[in-house]
Amino acid sequence: MSPSPRKPRVPRVASPPSSQSSSQPPSSRLDLDEVADDLGERRQLGHSAKVTVLRPVNEPETSPANPSGTAGASHEPAPAKERASENRKPKPERKLFPSRRSVALTKAGSPGPGGAAEVVAFPVPRAKRLRRRAVLVAGSVVGLVAGLMAVLVFTPVLAVRTIAVDGTKMLTPAQVQAALAPLVGRPLPQVGPDDVSRLVLPIVQVKSVRTQAVPPNTLHVTVVERVPVALVKQGDAFSVVDGDGVQIATAKDQSAFPVPVIDPQGAHMSHETFLAVTGVLSALPAEVLGQMATASADSVDSVQLKLSDGKTVVWGNSQDRDLKAKVLQALMKNAENSVKGQAPVNIFDVSVPRHPVTR
Question: What is the span of the domain harbouring residue 165?
Answer without folding.
Answer: 156-225
